[in-house]
Amino acid sequence: MTIHTARIHTAKIQMACLAKMEKVIVAMQDPDIGVKMKYQKLLITAIPHAVTGTDIVEWLLQNLSLTEEESLHLGDLIVKYGYIYPLKDPKNFVLRADDSPYRFQTPYFWTSYKWPARELDYAIYLAKKNITRQGDLLDYEKDSYNLLHKRINHTWDFVVMQASEQLRAAKQRRKSDRIVLDCQEQAYWFVNRPPPGVINIMESAPKRNNIHTTKVKLNSAFYKREIEYYKKALTRSRVKSSMSLEGFVKRCDQYLLHDPIVSGCLPCNPWITSGTLFWTLNADIVTIPTRLRVERWAFNFGDLLHDPLGHQQFRYFLEREFSAENLSFWEACEDVQYGELSKVEEKVEAIFEQFLAAGASKWVNIDSKTMEKTLDGLQIPHRYVFEDAQMHIYMLMKKDSYPRYLKSDMYKSILARSIVPPETKKSMVPFMRWHRHANPGSAQMFYPKDGDGKGKDMTVSQLCRFSHPMANLGVFTGPNIPIHSEDAPSWSQSSLPSFCPGILPAATSPSCSCTDPKSLPLNTDEVSLETQDYTNVEDTKISENKEAEAEEDEFGWTTRC
Amino acid sequence: MPVQSSKVADEGTANSAKARDECRALLDSLNKVTGCYKHLAIGVGGSSDCSNLRDELRRTRERSQDLAGVIRNKLTAVLRDKNLSREERAEMERLWVIFSSNLESFQVDMCKVLELGQGFPLSAAEKPLIQTGVSGGTSEVAARALSVQNIAHDTSLDVDNLDLDELEEQIETVDRMMENMEMKVNVLRWTVEAKGDAYHSVISNDASSVALLSAEEEIRGSRCCNRERCLVSMLFCTVALIAVVLSVCVVNLA
Question: What is the span of the domain harbouring residue B95?
Fold first, then answer.
């Protein structure tokens, strides 16, 4: 055990919560407004300064203006950190809001990070306990004792000497004090060396580099460094916050509707409900993408390239225009950049031969300066040799092919083909409790399969009497209308005006409106009457369909609300 | 401590034996003082804190310093002697380790007392002491530490301010002492082997420990109250039996 003089004297950071708890404890001692103290009655003696759990909670409630839950929690924390220890159940450091007695811990034994409990002290404590109980320690204590005996064997004489000395010293005190001292020490070691299974409050996360812990010498070297740093900082290019904020706002506006958390996602939020339809619809390669996704391709080139479907479509477009080698080159460069290190060399070679060599099969058009630079860099192939060339080609595609693609028929047709999945709505009328079970049969019927245009008409007509047929059985009245794209199946549109109670005619136009709360209050009265009928009808339908096995259909359509 | 091995003719060894025993005796007393100091330190800030306690702490601390100084000089002198035999050296190193551990504990306690003393100034009314339930006096412990019968407390001194400044100084002194020791004597701690319990008397079956045991049990609830009662009743029965046996003997004799 080395002498840690330096360590003891540098100020260690005390956890801020400990200082606050100590303030609370001191405030509790105030003779006027402090906690009421009672006597703990033992067989022979009565020991003063015992507090009941209810008193503590009440005091916290009144003096710190907390709610009851908060004061109970705070009191519990104070107990767990060892500032108050229980008398009746010394192994369980929990604050009970009844008349179980507690007592305050002496400041010497307060939890501290500046003076953490030392192994030597623990050894002395265990030795004392060993002597008084003649070897009857708890299991974990026995283990610790043996471990310590092995570890600090060289000072074991000291340990035993101190232990016996402390016991002899304690004998000089009167009985009640001895009991209190024993309890205090036991509580201290319970907090600082908790038995297995109890949370160790002294555990802290990895220490962050706090400016207070590292002593800085304010000498000339330090100031020189500071000067250098600030000189460099001055030369950094800065953007005016008005500009960057504008850009930020623009971006937010643009992507607002695309953010599933902010704008909700159609048909339903898979992170909240258990329907994974959203992910299925937005899978990497689908025949019919969603409208939002296709619109996003028009935002910028990066979005198009990074979306697998968009990438594929762009490639088809370029093939039609006979300029697909640009894209291939770009892809190959990306592969080098992000691929395996061992394969970098051969990939670079392959790219050179395929794209850059004179007379290559897929020759890309790079300006001479970049070409020279790249060819020079090829001497030492590494991941980023093609960075300039790649950037050049990327810009070329962005400025040339990309706008043309957006104006092309291909893009327009896929935009027209894209669907807007209908939203499943929450029930607006609270007293209506719809079944949460899925009706897999109906879902299958309603949803257009890939390539399959219409659903089955006959079943649709049966359930058409309810609100929107696309919606789940759990949905009915609300003014919220599912969004339709122009080429939604015709049956749904036809049923819409006639059978949807409470939906205003204006709302039938396929406009993007997820929620239309304005229309709600106008309709609830009419709605409630009609829904009564629907409930009954639907119930029977549900019970009928329930017989069908509750298998998940292909879209994983399950519960809705 | 009886002086051993005086029959040995060699004066050197006799001297070293004497030195060894002296060191042991001094270490024992240092150990006693450090233990008592720690015991007193536990009371700082609690309900038994008062100027008497602070005074006792101060005196214990001073005694400890003196002892530490004496032991250090002796031990350093012995250990720097090149002509020490191997067993002697091992023994002295063991004492050295005990001494340095003592000093360490003492220093930590001093620092804690300083901090607590600053945190709980006795004179200030706005910071009341923590009601810890300890109500008795600590003068017996201090008397034990100072090896005197009674302690006379000097209440005229302004305990707080004097005490804390001195305390800081003394912490520095102890610091320097320990550094000095490390510099002068190179003791490899991990090579020292503890002698074990043979050297020191261990409290095993004292009545006091039984009292402590029963005190602990008392706290554990009514179940133990029954145990107390059992003990008491058993005692009573044995006493009664003895009385009966005695009377029978008397009757027989008569």
Answer: 13-191
